[in-house]
Amino acid sequence: MSAIREAAEAVADGELVVYPTETVYGLGADATNPAAVERVFEAKGRDRSNPISLAVPSVPAALEHVHASDRERRFMATFLPGPVTVLCRRRDSVPDVLTSGRERVGVRVPDHPLALRLCERAERPITATSANVSGNPSARTARDVDPAIREAAAVVLDGGETGGTESTVVDVSTETIHRRGADAERIERWLAAN
To answer: What is the three-state SS of the chain?
Structure first.
């Protein structure tokens, strides 16, 4: 069985997987399954008031789970796939636990072949959060993944070294950059011009 298939099956079974992105290694689970999302919070020791984003293989796949304005769609068409997390109004398929009860959810379309194949094969959004214990550094290689995260995960996909810079988190509706990361200057220029 291929590693991608094994990881997708683990996600379908509510288990955790570690996967590479163009930024850092991520911790994936079925983002629509509240129990699986809870496992992500537990593995990371993450505060439940700190929302988790979701990853999908394409912008059309994202639109199945979020309501996006025309401007948000143009933004996504410009920057995704890429190292950007876009906050959009969630649909009912997105559970409260993922967003910490907020109306918006972060959406990622990772620009990494293994991450995209996992998203496609899983046939559901997966959690998009760094594969580290909260407060610890993010992993740039599979061997850097924290032993506690590795132990919690059913599958670790090794995609070599990642870029290392976290995604930029942006709310296009309020023109707010919540976290500066990759492409932040380009995003600011787009927001100012559009």
So the answer is: CCHHHHHHHHHHCCCEEEEECCCCEEEECECCCHHHHHHHHHHHCCCCCCCCEEECCCHHHHHCCEECCHHHHHHHHHHCCCCEEEEEEECCCCCHHHHCCCCEEEEECCCCHHHHHHHHHHCCCEEEEECCCCCCCCCCCHHHCCHHHHHHEEEECCCCCCCCCCCEEEECCCCEEEECCCCHHHHHHHHHHC
Q: Evaluate whether 85 touches 169 at the Cβ level (below 8 Å).
A: yes
Residue 164 has pLDDT above 90, yes or no: no
Q: Architecture of domain 3-164 in CATH? A: Alpha-Beta Complex (3.90)
pLDDT (tens digit per residue) in 6-16 = 999 999 999 99
Distance CA 15, CA 8 (A): 10
| Chain position carrying tokens 């309501």 | 67
Copy the structure tokens of residue 48: 């439940």
For the entire predicted model, the pTM comes to 0.95
- Round to whole Å and give the CA distance between 153 and 7: 10
Q: Longest C-alpha distance within the chain, in Å?
A: 48
